[in-house]
Write a structure and sequence with these properties.
Layout: E1 2-4, E2 7-12, E3 18-24, E4 44-47, E5 52-53, H1 61-67, H2 69-95, H3 98-113
Antiparallel strand pairs: 1-5, 2-3, 2-4
Amino acid sequence: MVLSGFVRLMRITPEGDQIVIHHGTPGDLFGIAAAIENPAYSLTAKWASDGKALVWPAGAWPGISETLPGLAQATRRAVSARMHAMQDTIVEMATRPVAQRIALSLMRLADQAGRAT
């Protein structure tokens, strides 16, 4: 869980390209493969700024989810939200002109990490 700072969740292609999938902000969960019973992580996390995170061993997830059902529920919500966001991105990529895709990406970033001023 991101406590402070910003983390980038990326997929690295076989050619070495880094594709940012999600920008994690304080309160976001990442590295949650064990929560969806996936034995391997499909993304790489890299800090985009100085930050701190709360971590636990992947093997501890069954006990943690039983002890802290609220965390388990939040994790399911995070997975669901990211799945919906990916679906929206796919639709945008298939149907929107480049300028609109850039504008939508900037709006998403502002929603995730921006501050009202």
